[in-house]
Amino acid sequence: MLTLEDKIQKIRIGIAGYGNLGKGVELALAQNPDMQLAAVVSRRPQISVQTPNIAVVSPDEAHKLAGSIDVMILCGDSATDLPKQTPSFARWFHIIDSYDNHSSIPDHFAAVDNAAKQNGKLGIISVGWDPGLFSINRLYGECLLPQGKHYTFWGSGVSQGHSDAVRRIEGIEDAVQYTLPSLKAVEAVRSGTNPQLSTRQKHKRVCYVVAAPNADRDRIESEIKTMPAYFAEYDTTVHFVSKQEFAEKNKGYPHGGFVFRSGTTANRKNGHVIEYSLKLDPNPEFTASVMVAYARAAYRLASQGCTGCLTVFDIPPAMLSVKKPEQIRRELL
To answer: Which residue in 27, 46, 50, 176 has the most C-beta neighbors within 10 A?
Structure first.
């Protein structure tokens, strides 16, 4: 006898990149009854996928999956993978990515939009919690309190994108980067005083690095601290540690943060503070869960004929839910 789950036409999901984020996507799919993992794309053909009977193909062969994947979730890094990979995959698949280099999102959007429109595909980029959920909350705050300021604080926690950017520096065997918010700055914002805060006043970045034998540590430290868009605007501390110390001190990928909108109404007489916060353990699994929800929206919008590139700003919230609209209204409105 067929169960309700059996009767659901499942959305076939592909995962491109089987690191921490890709594995998180696989776990998230197991919690969504309308989705199933269909294939994994990886540069490592010998990987062991947890889901039984899943094909693993190389990136060069990925286009052959075009007829068997409804949405491809791209789990590469923003520094080197996604700028090339997302527009390329958008030629064959509806896609989701988590591109997180904020300053370069407009250029990334344009490249993906062009590729997707030319091939009748839909892409939703920069999906996660920041950019992503925090972006939505910044927009809501600005719309609701036009007379005011928004503030974003990240951490304390491990930044996947920044850690990966550090690991790609020559002479580094392993590395992790922790983002630490200034508690003094957070409390100043929470009080509603609308402080003027520079980038350096809001956060510090701390890197733990395992350097290769005979690597030039001075060069490595300089490359980290001067890296544009990642570290150049922050006070950054670099600690060189042994492999053993690195393994002992860096377990898991916790993260989180806060978004504030502090503003006034009634001729600027009355003050209001909107606060949204996340505490994540671990970060990759939560980011993956967000991407999977937006994959559902991508599938639905693509089925309606939508093409090109979108961001989280363009997606109606109900598109994310497995529930019917009437159920959402009854239970959540």
So the answer is: 176
Give the count of beta carbons closer than 10 Å to the beta carbon of residue 332: 10
Helix/strand/coil for 162: helix
234-279 residue pLDDT tens: 999 999 999 999 999 888 889 999 999 999 998 888 999 999 999 9
Longest dimension (CA), the chain: 67
Counting beta carbons within 10 angstroms of the beta carbon of residue 251, is it exposed (0 to 12), middle (13 to 18) or buried (19 or more)? exposed
Amino acid (1-letter code) at residue 292: V
pLDDT in tens, 99-145: 998 999 999 999 999 999 999 999 999 999 999 999 999 999 999 99
What is the CA angle 69-76-36, rounded to 5? 30
Q: Which two tokens stand for residue 235?
A: 């006070």
Containing 14, the helix (H) or strand (E) segment is strand 11-16
Rounded CA separation 130/287 (Å):
9
Angstrom distances, CA of residue 87 to CA of 110, 239, 302: 9, 36, 17
Alpha helices in the chain, H assignment, sequence order: 4-7, 20-29, 82-89, 105-118, 133-144, 160-167, 183-190, 199-202, 217-225, 243-249, 283-303, 325-332
CA distance 185 to 202: 6
How many other β-carbons are positioned within 10 Å of the β-carbon of residue 133? 18
